């Protein structure tokens, strides 16, 4: 999974990001280019056009939903999306519901922790220390191009057991 989330796990509001972090966009592009990206329909529709050099797997409950772009595939469940991945590296890129459903399948999290709290309607699931191990971290102070301090954090799953997130409020 790959995401940028505030200190309160906020992701976005009204299907839009809460911040503009150019260096985080560059990192997202570098990490996901050449790979399959899995997302919900609303996340896909928040893009002006499909992201280049990535196969988009779009999850929707709408059986009639169609996309006319060549690098986009529409599926109707996360499991159907994962069946298209095989053993390849892929990234779950959102939104909140897709992250919540996908966490039990993920073997890693690339999280940009934005140092602030935000008025959001979509949230990243909590990262439990019993499940995830922080293996790398890089701090980025705010500057003329970045309104907020943020830290890149890389997590790996501590074990291969999936967790039950049914009790999550996010």
TrEMBL record:
Domain DHFR, chain residue ranges per copy: 1-157
InterPro entries cross-referenced by the UniProt entry: DHFR, DHFR-like_dom_sf, DHFR_dom
PROSITE patterns found in the cross-reference section: DHFR_2
Catalysis: reaction(s): (6S)-5,6,7,8-tetrahydrofolate + NADP(+) = 7,8-dihydrofolate + NADPH + H(+)
UniProt cross-references to SUPFAM superfamilies, sorted A to Z: Dihydrofolate reductase-like
CDD domains: DHFR
Keyword terms, alphabetized: NADP, One-carbon metabolism, Oxidoreductase
Molecular function via GO: dihydrofolate reductase activity; NADP binding
GO cellular-component term (any): cytosol
Root EC class: oxidoreductase
UniProt-listed Enzyme Commission number(s): 1.5.1.3
Biological processes per GO annotation: dihydrofolate metabolic process; folic acid metabolic process; one-carbon metabolic process; tetrahydrofolate biosynthetic process
Regions annotated as coiled coil: none
Pathway: Cofactor biosynthesis; tetrahydrofolate biosynthesis; 5,6,7,8-tetrahydrofolate from 7,8-dihydrofolate: step 1/1
Family, similarity comment: Belongs to the dihydrofolate reductase family.
Protein purpose: Key enzyme in folate metabolism. Catalyzes an essential reaction for de novo glycine and purine synthesis, and for DNA precursor synthesis.
Name this polypeptide is given: Dihydrofolate reductase
